[in-house]
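Hi all, long-time lurker, first post. I run a small reading group and we've been trying to get comfortable going from sequence to structure in the token notation. Rather than ask abstract questions, I figured I'd post a concrete chain and ask someone more experienced to write out its structure so we can walk through it together at our next meeting. Sequence below, copied exactly:
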Amino acid sequence: MNGSSPVPAHAHVFLGASHEKNERKTWMVIGLCLVMMLIEMIGGSLFGSLALIADGLHMATHAGAMLIAALAYTYARRHVEDRRFVFGTGKMGDLAGFSSAIILGMVALLIGYEAVSRWLSPVAIDFNEAIPVAVLGLGVNLLSAWMLSDHDHDHAPHAHVRHDHDHASVYHRDHNIRAAFAHVLADAAVSVLAIVGLCLAKMQGWLWMDPLAGMVGALVIGSWSYTLVRDTARNLLDMDTDECMARRVKAVLESDGDWIEDLHVWRLGPGHMGVMASVVTRIPHRNSRFYHQLLRRFEGLSHITVEVHTSPSDV
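-- Answer (accepted) --
Happy to help. Here is the structure in token form:
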């Protein structure tokens, strides 16, 4: 079921509008990684290239990271009508994104550790073999990034939207595809740094450039990992992720002299927000349906619950 379809009252289908498309793209990237893994492993075995075998193993871990995102998409879609999920499966992508971000952080630590080790104890490098492998890896990662990209939405791991008129892009953001995109972008960045470092080390004899490039790559990946952990954790913990929407909801509910005793606005899934409000009114016979109609003007409010109290002074 697609998140762009009309959501009937009390339905709990909170998948993103691009859920199925992102699911297909993620499985395609996994297929690409597995094909490249087999090519590199077979080629490394036939030609005795340790660098190709190592990069083939790296592609296997890359496919494993993508598998988390793909399985989350598939599971969320297949269980979209499962009533055991109180507010649907829209946050399955946030959970997968959080897990992928942790893995990304571990990768950054491993790269940093290896870079420091090589800085302290330099090792011999076969430049003629290592550089083509790095270029091959860059090509695969750029192709993967292109396959995962979506020009209609911002998946950049470092992007933040602060302006009120851009608030829609915040709650539409799919953190699962964002995490998958961050993985391939991180690999691409490491490949670029590795190519630059290896070329300078080969031409100038600066062997320290290779571990330095690794350290820079580890810092960049670590930064992306932290951003993804922070953003996905906010959604998983139901933090108020859209202050602009909360202000607009409050203004509408209090526009006719009523006032709010309690208000919660939170993210249910990509493109879906939930609202729970306790409203006090001086106007008799005003019920929750009245406030539901007021809030229907806001796109993205997919689940609205309003509790109405009449002011005791006017009873």
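A couple of things your group might point at:
Residues 164 and 244 are 6 Å apart (CA to CA).
The beta strands are 259-269, 272-281, 301-310.
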